[in-house]
Write a structure and sequence with these properties.
Elements: H1 2-23, E1 30-36, E2 49-54, E3 57-64, E4 66-69, E5 76-83, E6 93-103, E7 109-114, E8 120-125, E9 131-134, E10 139-143
Antiparallel strand pairs: 1-2, 1-5, 2-3, 3-10, 4-9, 5-8, 6-7, 6-10, 7-8
Length: 145
């Protein structure tokens, strides 16, 4: 009986912590959209353009080193959220994988990456059957000036 009471006591202490953690939802600081043109079977595309929406404004960005694996796709799109972006200058940099390999409904791929400034970008391919992968040296993204 004492063990049950002890377990219930520990559970009652942990419950407020888990509920408080559940209420904290990570809100993105910005959003990102990328698009690429035609691809043939077995050929990778290194992204070239996109848009970063931050603090009510849209900024064109360049993206190099993000490859897609697709068969016969004519238009590939990806979109996602940007976290820990304290200033626009923090976005520029070399991103490396934080997590990858997940799939979303419809067969698209998900990729999370982080740069040297702590900015995290989570992307999801919106074209069916597309797999996002990082280039050999990661992905370089920057706001076009």
């Amino acid at each position: 009986m004492r063990r049950v009471a002890f377990a219930l006591g520990v559970l009652s202490l942990c419950l407020p912590l888990s509920v408080a953690g559940a209420k904290k939802k990570a809100t993105p600081d910005a959003t990102i959209k990328l698009s690429a043109g035609s691809v043939a079977a077995g050929v990778g595309v290194s992204w070239g353009s996109g848009t970063l929406s931050y603090q009510g404004k849209s900024y064109p960005i360049s993206v190099n080193g993000l490859d897609v694996g697709s068969v016969g796709a004519s238009k590939i799109t990806a979109s996602g959220s940007v976290y820990h972006l304290k200033s626009l200058d923090d976005f520029d940099g070399n991103y490396t994988a934080a997590a990858a390999g997940a799939t979303v409904g419809g067969g698209g791929g998900v990729l999370a990456m982080q740069n040297q400034n702590g900015v995290v970008v989570k992307l999801a391919a919106t074209s069916r059957g597309v797999k996002l992968t990082l280039g050999a040296s990661g992905v370089k993204m920057e706001v076009k000036k």
